[in-house]
């Protein structure tokens, strides 16, 4: 069974072909965090891909593909 997603991508800024800034808004507010922590973001394998992506072609809808991303903002923001 597919789990519910719990955040929304509100902005994507392509800095270069290998650096992207994602601005994510969690559905239940931003939890407290410390500098150096990371988050795991995931989409289902069946989610559409944007042109030029390096991700593999969509796979089975039930597979949640996760990637770890470091938090690049201070806790005060």
Strand content: 35-45%
Low-confidence stretches: none
- Determine the fraction of residues in helical runs and give it as a percent range: under 10%
Order of secondary-structure elements: EEEE
Using the alpha-carbon principal axes, give the shape.
Answer: globular
Quickly give the structural class. Answer: mainly beta
Sheet having the most strands = 2 strands, antiparallel
The Cα radius of gyration reads: 14 Å
Strand order of the largest sheet: 1-2
Mean pLDDT: 78
Number of strand elements:
4
| Number of alpha- plus pi-helical segments | 0
- Cα end-to-end separation: 35 Å
Summarize the helices and strands and which ones pair or pack.
Layout: E1 7-16, E2 19-26, E3 38-44, E4 64-70
Antiparallel strand pairs: 1-2, 3-4
Describe this structure in words.
With about 80 residues, the chain is mainly β. The chain contains no helices and four strands. The strands form two sheets. Strands 1-2 form a two-stranded antiparallel ribbon. A hairpin with a 2-residue loop joins strand 1 and strand 2. The N and C termini lie far apart (about 35 Å).
């Amino acid at each position: 069974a597919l789990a519910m997603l719990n955040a929304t991508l509100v902005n994507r800024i392509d800095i270069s072909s290998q650096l992207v800034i994602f601005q994510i808004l969690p559905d239940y507010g931003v939890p407290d965090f410390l500098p150096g922590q990371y988050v795991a973001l995931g989409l289902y394998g069946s989610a559409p891909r944007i042109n030029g992506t390096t991700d593999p072609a969509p796979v089975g809808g039930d597979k949640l593909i996760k990637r770890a991303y470091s938090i690049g903002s201070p806790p005060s923001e």
